[in-house]
Design brief:
two-stranded antiparallel ribbon, about 60% helix, about 5% strand, globular
Length: about 270
Amino acid sequence: MNKKYRRLMIALSVVVGALFAAGFAGVFYPPLLFDMQLLPLIQRLSADFSFAALGLLFLLLLFTFLFGRFYCAALCPLGLFQELLFSLFARGRKTKPGRPRPYKYFPAAVFFGALAGSTAFLFRLLDPYTLSASAASGAWFSIALLALLAVLVWFKGRYFCTNICPAGALLGLFARRGVNRIRLDENRCVACGACASRCPTGSIDFKNKKVDNETCVRCLRCLDACPRHGLSFGRKKEKSPAAVPVFSPRRRRLLVAGGAIVLFAAAAKAGGLL
């Protein structure tokens, strides 16, 4: 099942990546994919409210609550770019588990504050879709930012997604207590660190056997990495209740008959019959 999830994720990433490439090149415009970009949706709602934009935003947030930050792994162009870079860079290298950083909310607060003040400059700097589209159009400033991002991926993995991106900060709040999460079985885990070495966000603390589902982008690399299959994706499994003895009339009759024989034997012996 783990391999199935991972294969589906890879297939989805390839298809979405091809659609983004076609759209940015002007060959084909995928309207639903482009319209479902999180921060442009919020900007559209703040500038010109529409129920269509509100519905798409609601679907994105609901999907995130149900399944986690799949948007960051398969629907965000900058996320796909970083996934490709991490796949190229991470071979033979190990990433270290991340640590909770409260200041990751600060860029998001500044970004949404600037958005409320109708300042669009930060959109070019921090919005993944705007940055990707600007770089695809040949803007040197955006290309330079992508080059810096590539360096960051080399040293820190997907640090941008977990500590800088305002979209990631917002989605992380919905994914943190979501329905389907990456779960680590403490009974199977031997703290070997294989899963953590494959995680691009440093979301797995294998020493304490914990997974930070707020920063996890659901790339699902860790599912195949564990040699003991100690990681899974899905809902929390309910503990099976203790087995309740099944009532058996036949067994009760045998017990009653046995008890009666014992009592009769005891009475007979006491009366001198035996």
